[in-house]
Design a protein that fits this description.
This protein has 217 residues and is an alpha+beta fold. The protein has a domain of 146 residues: FAS1 domain. It is built from nine helices and seven strands; from the N terminus they run ααααααβαααββββββ. A seven-stranded mixed β-sheet has the order 2-1-7-6-5-4-3. The N and C termini lie far apart (45 Å). The chain binds 2-acetamido-2-deoxy-beta-D-glucopyranose (NAG). 2-acetamido-2-deoxy-beta-D-glucopyranose binds next to loops.
Length: 217
Amino acid sequence: MKTSASVLLFTVSLQASIASTQLLLPNFFRNSPAKAASRDTQNPIMNIPNILVPPSKDDEPSAGSDSLSISDVIGKERTINIFAGFTRDIDTISKRLNDEKQNTTVLAPLNSALQKLPRKPWEDPEDYSALGEKAYEGQSGEDRATRNLRRFSEAHIVPVSPWKEGEKVETLGGGKVWWESKDGDRIIQPGNIEVSSIASRVSNGEVWILKECLNYA
Ligand SMILES: *[C@@H]1O[C@H](CO)[C@@H](O)[C@H](O)[C@H]1NC(C)=O
């Protein structure tokens, strides 16, 4: 029973990775056969231990849904599966979301919010003005895109949970954020970003779904 649920989770997370690769990652992640092959084989190897072997298994013999971590559940919500893919691909974030000892509030923008950004989350206008059209070609371009994607994603990771109203917290990206309630909705500041819903509450934190992306510049 547990295994089939885990296999399902794994399949969903693999689909999310594929979705994020196809929709938003730079060409070199999509087009290079060597890279694609290594991603295909690496992701399962990296993800299986996280999903099939909950870290708290030995300490908590009666492991129920209480023992699930954010990394176990974030891939289940289809409306945020692009951002979920980013959290898995960036090692600082994936380690944190799998760590039972560190609580996190993940601010996950809807797929539609990512798709309507004026630029891709791995692009930086400064790279284009310094380096031109070839800013993301070759190994150094790939490194640049990876760094930008990390900065974007870390700006959406709040290293506390529960996160109280009005509490100003520095994200993993370094910016300060807080939230206010307005007509029953939660609004993230700065930027007036509305929380559409809270997708999950698990042992090491919560996943909040955002209608827009936070400013990460
Ligand atoms: C971490 O989250 C759990 C579950 O929500 C909570 O009981 C616990 O107090 C939190 N720990 C800290 C340090 O905030």
